[in-house]
Design brief:
Strand content: 15-25%
Keywords: Hydrolase
Distance between the termini: 11 Å
Pfam families: Isochorismatase (PF00857)
Structural class: alpha/beta
Largest sheet: 7 strands, parallel
Number of strands: 7
InterPro entries: Isochorismatase-like_dom, Isochorismatase-like_hydrls, Isochorismatase-like_sf
Protein name: Nicotinamidase-related amidase
Mean pLDDT: 91
Organism: Streptomyces rapamycinicus
Low-confidence stretches: 1-9
């Protein structure tokens, strides 16, 4: 794989603001992974079990920016992991120790294993080299799943966290990543929660204390600065 740092920048690249140097080092593709959280049809798609959340993800542009980041990751050799929340039809192994879990059981759309609801939602692309990590329990896409072991085996120490929701799963993922020793990066325009006004407050007062907060454009710009030709 050949570094592309000395490649002549395009006119489009030259027009973009230069990313922060600290982020450029943190986000080098060979040490970085992108995690999409619950960007599945039954959560953010048109037939969502949570229509208010789906609407915010669409209308804010967050879901579109997740898709753009995934495409940029594919182009620059960044490993992509898609975290999916699902449940068995019989509910075996599902968590029931919080009001949220009990409310989910009553929703008209269920995130059943093998159903359309747990497929990655459009327009997020999925490539053959992406890893899909499915969980049957809990609130976090990291705790109790394969994510940590996969990242360690791949030699990735920085995790870019995107998706939904800013109310629960995103902060859970950020805290778990930091507790496990990863550097967490949050593109604040590529996450969503309800109400929409809650997300910026949560980012400013909580996530900014433990993660590098940036934008989807800046993350993609960092990847382009130090990209290698991806091996497929």
């Amino acid at each position: 794989m050949t570094p592309r740092e000395d490649a002549t920048p395009s006119r489009e690249d030259a027009a973009r603001p230069r990313p922060r140097e600290d982020l450029v080092e943190l986000l080098r593709p060979e040490g970085c992974a992108l995690l999409t959280v619950e960007c599945q049809r039954g959560v953010v798609g048109p037939d969502s079990a949570l229509p208010e959340l789906a609407a915010v993800a669409q209308e804010s542009g967050a879901l579109g920016r997740v898709a753009q980041l995934v495409a940029a990751a594919h182009d620059t050799g960044v490993q992509v992991l898609h975290a999916v929340a699902e449940r068995r039809a019989d509910g075996r192994g599902a968590s029931r120790n919080a009001p949220l879990f009990r409310a989910v059981e009553r929703l008209p759309v269920r995130q059943l294993t093998g159903s359309a609801a747990v497929e990655i939602a459009e327009p997020v692309p999925v490539a053959a080299e992406d890893l899909v990590v499915r969980r049957l329990h809990g609130l976090s896409p990291i705790a109790g799943t394969e994510v940590d072991a996969l990242l360690r085996n791949l030699g990735r120490r920085t995790l870019v966290i995107t998706g939904v929701s800013a109310n629960v799963a995103i902060p859970a993922a950020v805290f778990d990543a930091v507790n496990l020793g990863y550097a967490a990066v949050v593109p604040e325009d590529a996450i969503a929660g309800v109400p929409a006004s809650y997300t910026p407050a949560m980012v400013r007062h909580t996530l900014a204390l433990v993660a590098a907060v940036t934008t989807a454009d800046e993350v993609a710009a960092c990847w382009r600065r130090t990209a290698v030709t991806p091996s497929r």
